[in-house]
Every structure is written in C-alpha cells, then in structure tokens.
Amino acid sequence: MKILQRYFAVSIAQAVAFVLLAFLALQAFVDLTSELPMVGKNGYSIAHAFLYVLILIPGNVYQVMPVAALIGTIYTMAQFASTSEFTIMRAASMSTSMAAWFLFRIGAVFVIITFVFGELIAPRTAPLADKLKLAARGTAVSSEFRSGLWTKDIVKSEGLKGEPTGARFFNVREARPDGQLTDVKLYEFDNSFRLRSVIVAARATYQGGNVWRLLDVTETRFSNSTTLQPGVEANLQNNFIQETSAVATEKSASRELVSEITPQILSVSASDPQRMSAAELAVYTAHLAENKQETERYKIAFWKKLIDPMSIFVLMALALPFAYLHTRSGGISLKIFIGIMIGVSFLLVNTLFSHLGLLSTWPAFLTAVAPSALFLLLALGALWWVERH
C-alpha cells in the first residue's frame, strides 16, 4: 500500500500544483490590471506595479489553496476513473475508508503549507507590499475616515500597570511607511468620562517599550469637579457639570508618552482582517476587548484563519466520489467544471456566513465552522450514495 499511497500523492500533488499556478497567474493578472490606472502618477512606475503584485502572491496562495486542492484532486480522481485504475485498486482490496485515509494524509501536507503561507509569510509580505506602494507614491497610511486613524487605550496610574485612571482616544492623521506619525491628537478622559486633557503633537516617533516621543507638543489640561445640582441628587444619578474655568495650556518641544498603542496596533487598525495572521488578530482582539470596543468582526476573522485551511480536508473528501463515476457519467472536463462550481459555491457560502454571523451576532466559532460542516455533510452524503450505487 505504500506504493499506492505514493502514487496517489504524486498524482494529486502534480495536479494541485498545476491548478495553483494557474489560479495564481490569473489572480496576479487581475491585481496588475487594477494597478495599471495608478502607473505614471506620483512616481509610481510599471516596475513598482509588477513588484507589488509579486509580493502579494503569498497571500493569494493562502486564499486559493483550498479550491486548488479540490480541483486538482477531482482531476486526479476523474483520471483514475476514466482509465479504470480506481476499479483495479478497489479489486486489489482498497476500501473507500482506505482511499479517504490516503487523501487525508495528502491533505495534511496542503494544510501545513497553507498555514505557513497564511501565518508566517503573507502577514509579512502584505505590509511590505503596502509600504512599497506608499513609498513609491510618496503617500502615507490613513484610514477610511477623513480624520485619520482612530484607536483607544486605557490610562493607568503607573504607565502600563496600576489601576485604570481613565481612557485615551488616539487620533493620527497619517502613519508614514518609515514609522513616523504626523498630526497626532490625544483626548484623555477620566473614569467619569469627563475630558481631562487634549494633547496635540506635530509628529511622533516610537522609541520601543510602549514609549512614544511627541514633538512640537501643545497640551491643554482641564480642571474638572463633579457637582450635582442641589435637591436633584436622588433623581439625577451620574449627572455632572464639567467646569472649564480652570484651563491650563503648556507647550513643549518634545515629551514622552507611555501607551498600550504600538505601531503594530496602528497598522493593524488600518488593515483588512483577512490579511492579518491569527496571532495579530488575537492581540488586536484582546486590545479591543480591554478597551470595550466591538470585537466580533475580528473574532470571526481569527476563527476563519484557523478553520479555513482545515477546509482542504472537506473539499478533498468531496472529490473522492468522482473516482466512482465512470466515463459514461461525464468526461473529465465536465467533472472539473463541477469541481469549479463546488469551489466557487464554498467561497460564496463562506463569505455569506461571515456577513450573516456579523449581522446576527452569531458565535464567532460557529460562524467560521458552519460552511465547512455543511460541505462535510455533503461529502459524507455523496460517499454514501456512491457506495450504495
């Protein structure tokens, strides 16, 4: 059976590699087409566009590998059926469970490759591609908001330790590729959500160890006191009057700021969750949860990062029934077309469940695992049908 296992592995690996290269070439062509309108503007040349598309390829490998594994396995199984090789294998005492075990072991290699690209390579190459593009065009990173990037952290009595004394909203107009921030605004509130200070800095550079150096700084401090109107204390709980009679403004050439916000968190806050690694998503989700911000989108993306590569097992199981279909059931081209439709359907269902889970506030794990579970049931049903017939 070792020879048979090796024959399965070589045949499927060759087919999957061919399909993967075809998909990557197609995706690269689409990416290059979308970059062409920017060529010739602000110093962005065709060489920059080609290099940008080339650096994005590892991320594309992660996205298309499951479908490539499906189509490549279907092609191999259809070839075995058309040449009656699979019939001979079955006559030589190879059971369906044994064939499924062969596919599982081969799929494990594809899953590992997908994890390597998704967790180790793509999260590093995607920011590199963005930095290359921004540097070539001489622009900076900004968010979809006109006011720039926004994030929040907790102000503590001893820097990063101690009791929380308030909250700080971090606003950056531009985050440049060299790591510098421009037009920085910090809004600090106390535990009663009263404005305590506003810090405006022209620039900021990260010194490491959660320390920022702010340059050309203007700080406005407000002296607040909590006072309730006489006679309404019982009816107006938590109401307060913010007194701004005591306002102090101080200017300085530079000052240091200790904050939970790091350049990684700022870059992540402006990134698409689909292009982030599971480790980055876990760190950023914990940061959002600590600051009582919405985390559902990033939780779903985190679980999808872990579960989507495992869908390779499910899709390869869906390909196994094609080995039982003889030529009279359709040629290889028809079976490949069916495989493409299954792959497209899986991608559409996966995306649909992500949006439905976000809108309906379903548990993130169930939202991520539901498409794979649905197609696994389909694969088991198909195997049961071919066994019966």
From TrEMBL:
Protein name, per record: LPS export ABC transporter permease LptG
Keyword set, alphabetical order: Cell membrane, Membrane, Transmembrane, Transmembrane helix
InterPro entries: LptG, LptG/LptF_permease
Protein's UniProt keywords contain Cell membrane: yes
Membrane-spanning ranges: 7-30, 50-78, 99-118, 306-325, 337-358, 364-386
Membrane topology field: Multi-pass membrane protein
Compartments, as annotated in UniProt: Cell membrane
Pfam name, any one: LptF_LptG
Domain of life of the source: Bacteria
